[in-house]
Predict the structure.
Amino acid sequence: HCPPPPQRHHRTRPPRRTTLLPVNHVVSSEADVWLLGGELRPVLSLSRVVLQNGMLALVSASRSWQKHAANAAKPIIVVGSVNADIVVEINRMPLTGETIGARTTDTGKMYGGGKGANQAVAAAQLGHPTKFVGSFGNDQNAVALRQMLLDKSVDTSLAVQSNVPNGQAFIFLTESGENSIILVGGSNMSGWDAPADVQQHLEDAMAGAAAVMLQREIPDDINVAVALLAVKHRVPVILDAGGMDDQPPAELLRLCTYMCPNETELARLTGGMPTATAAEAVVAARALQVSVD
């Protein structure tokens, strides 16, 4: 009998571990493109693209995480929208001029929402100190929404109070899970001070922040003002591209450290480039990076 052939030992890299981490951590330069499944959401930075299933799900890849551990006690500042989401369950959408009943008699409940508030709650629930800067309205929805954030350990002391009703989203939900949404900007769009006043209001807080998170459900000039202040204090800027469906200001894109669009948003930002697959999304993301540079 011939002796068995010698076994060949292949060196393999340990699998990358995907975990939810505070967003003051940054994706390692060693991390290559990684698809976690679910919704395709590229996080764009000046030098790399990481595909992931939500803004706070980052790919842990190397020692570079450790050098950012000193930021763990610094707060994340979220500047953005807070909505009263009114969810109405229906069997189908009504035709023009038609009145229909809801699918259930106990629907129409109000839930806390808005991309900004959602980001703040997510960061706080990960155990990171989080400050929410939004414009609350002058109605009872605003009172309830502020309490919801406080109950989730979100600091609202930097939020402002406006003299218009709070922002709302009316969500019509079918039994199959399809939905249509009507967004009312309210205080999210018209309750802010002048951009220079917002910068002055946030100056001290920004100086000690780990990161600032933005979205496009508040005026662009407020986002630009906050991003300029963050850059002044060397604070990373993370932009969720969702919200308004027009093109964001070029200045805002240049100020971002990371940007997080979904497939539809990435296609719009790149003038209609295909984004249906992971490979297409990476090509579109690289093109967007080049255009911003």
